[in-house]
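pls design
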C-alpha cells in the first residue's frame, strides 16, 4: 500500500522550501512576591536608572501600610467582641435578677 504523505498542519501549502519560515517565541515569567527577582530589577534599572530603588521603596511602603491596616482591623474586631461580651453580661445579669 502506498500512502501519500500529507504536509504538516502548520505549514503553508503555498510556501516553497526556499522561503524561510517565521516563528514567534513568547517567554513569560511569573513570580509571587512583592518584588521581582534581582535579575529583573537589574533589567528595569538598565532601561530606566533608579527604577529598582523606587520599586524597593514602593514595596516597603506597601508592606508598612498593609500591616497597619491589618492591625487596625484586628483592633476593631477585638473592640467589637469586647462590646458584645459586655452586652451579653448585662443582659444575663438583668435576666437573672428578674427571675
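designed seq:
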Amino acid at each position: 500500500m502506498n500512502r501519500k504523505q500529507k504536509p504538516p498542519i502548520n505549514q503553508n501549502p503555498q510556501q516553497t522550501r526556499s522561503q524561510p519560515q517565521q516563528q514567534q517565541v513568547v517567554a513569560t515569567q511569573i513570580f509571587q512576591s512583592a518584588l521581582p527577582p534581582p535579575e529583573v530589577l537589574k533589567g528595569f534599572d538598565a532601561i530606566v536608572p533608579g527604577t529598582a530603588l523606587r520599586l524597593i521603596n514602593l514595596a516597603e511602603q506597601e508592606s508598612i501600610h498593609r500591616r497597619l491596616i491589618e492591625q487596625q482591623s484586628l483592633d476593631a474586631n477585638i473592640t467589637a467582641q469586647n462590646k458584645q461580651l459586655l452586652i451579653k453580661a448585662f443582659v444575663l445579669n438583668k435576666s437573672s435578677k428578674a427571675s
